[in-house]
Protein: DUF1122 domain-containing protein
Amino acid sequence: MNNFKIDEFELHAKDIRQTHIKELKSFVLYLGNRSIGRCNYFSGRDYYPVWIELDYDPWPREAGLEVKLMKAFYDFLPPKGRFFITYEKDYETYRMLFSGYSVVETPLGKSLFLAGFRWFKNWYFPEGGNEGGPKIQTNKPSSDNIAEEEIKELLEEVKNPEIKDWIVNNVKRKS
Structure:
């Protein structure tokens, strides 16, 4: 993810470490000189798709950079790539998810949606011992047709009529 620019800030990795899995690297990701979190990058193998996991510090939202940051992840991933992002440090998203809101109704979910992601899963209780804490999974659609289907499914999940109307009226869709 080096050499991505978000406004005047460069997105870059430090402390890059190879793990015991040859396709998996771990590093700290910075926007400018400030950390946005520890990151794992899996480059894919056979039928396992590329994925990125970010233990996110949501300070870019307050700086007005979060949608652009999520768009950098979206652009970096290939079709079918997966993005996992923790929300334990994002108190508003955490509170809303545990109160029954859908992912896209939260501040973080909205940023992910505006960046281009269309499918979401809340891993509020991740499986297994190495899975870490609560996180959102979102996948980059493999095609426009898949993205359209994902929007239809998403509209069934959204409870807030204002957000549902916004999606219907503002997202480019097939006619």
